[in-house]
Amino acid sequence: MRQPLRLDLSEKLYAKAVELIPGGSQTMSKRPQGYAPGAFPIYVERAKGCRVWDVDGNEYIDYIMALGPIVLGYCYPAVDHAIAAQLRKGIVFGLLHPLEIMAAQMICETVPCAEMVRFLKGGAEVTTAATRIARAYTGRELILNCGYRGWADQWTAQHTTPNARGVPECLRSTVQSFPYDDLPALESILHEKADQVALVFLDAVSGTAPDPAYLTGVRELCDRYGVLLAFDEIVTGFRLAPGGAQEYYGVAPDLACFAKGVANGMPLGVVCGRRAVMEIASELLISVTYGGECLSLAAVCACLQEYRDKPVHPHLWAHGEKLMEGFAEAGKRHGVPFDCTGLAPMACPRFSYPEAELNADAWSLFLQETAKRGVLIRRGGLLFVTYSHGDDDIEQTLEAVDASVALLADAVRTGTLKDRLETQPIEEGFRRF
Ligand SMILES: Cc1ncc(COP(=O)(O)O)c(C=O)c1O
Description:
Blueprint (H helix, E strand, L loop, with lengths): L7 H13 L23 E5 L2 E4 L4 E4 L14 H11 L10 H13 L5 E5 L2 H16 L3 E5 L6 H4 L18 E3 L5 H11 L3 E7 L10 H12 L2 E5 L11 H6 L5 E4 L10 E5 L1 H4 L15 H16 L2 H23 L3 E4 L4 E6 L4 H17 L2 E2 L6 E2 L6 H23 L3 H4 L13
Parallel strand pairs: 3-13, 5-6, 5-7, 7-8, 8-9
Antiparallel strand pairs: 1-2, 2-3, 4-10, 9-10, 11-12, 12-14
Helix pairs in contact: 2-10, 3-10, 6-7, 11-13, 12-13
The site of pyridoxal-5'-phosphate (PLP) has 14 residues, from helix 4.
């Protein structure tokens, strides 16, 4: 076993943070309790390309990548130059700015379903705007939803976990969940309730890839029952292909939402779709002060130009595939049930021990040991490979993964897994839902 990481400053800062910030973090998924607490960095100091340096001076290859927004790499020159150039001219104004048109035009040229575009800030805002548009367009209220759409009341209303308190009870009947990759289940709800349904809303892909016929089937069902279809492309957008999952699978929704991946880390959300549907937004109160904020819009234009000019997406697929293969080989070599599901630019590593406790401890040891070897991976999350992850980075990652899986195999074989954990227990309940 290697020496534990020095994380003194991270730990000290977090102790202060919980006194000042409820939950210690602005983002549920960044809370240290969800990683390998005590053995995993908490605070970052800076980043460049695919690497981050924590406040204690440790260097890592990062696959958490801000939870998805970074597609090109941290401090990517073309994007940073565009932001810096705009910064010299002003951030946000009381009049409109031509960048709004330029960014909207580029999105319409890139995203198959996009004929009109609105800009907001972040995922929860754009998914909420999409439902407002769909309800106004159809005159119906019910949303059929599959997946996480953000923290807004209407989405949280689907859940009954302790962190879903504070939401009016009356909203619960306005959104109904349906299971992923299960056409008969969706059809049965539509058969019963289509005349109440405004919108079917889903992630085109999440941690697992759907049956190839699934999205076409969902599109056909929506057409047959006369309801709108929206894809949440907040993770898949600008990652699976420049035009997102809808380009990759060749299935166009009526509406689509983007946020992560659209501006390489700048805070922007996009709701776009068919002209006939989007046009109604001009009559609705969908309005934020910062929607036309120009640093983010300059970043979007720079990103989309980069996606056109450089082989960004072939790079994400090729390097993601190497990671998926390497993870699965490490599992096989050491007899550990470990591999990745999903698609290569957003692969999802998993341990498949039958016992939940063993799985949780396996993750803790794995995160602890890969972090010691300079690699940051999120427990149960996606591997966000970027255009800045090079061959050497992937090789170094796979060496770290192999050594960590070997150590885990030995710990399980000798019954010493718990003894080898340098972590505090994780809190499963911290998760979003
Ligand atoms: C698929 C998906 N939709 C919506 C959201 C919410 O986005 P935000 O956190 O920017 O509100 C997220 C965030 O993780 C997401 O992954």
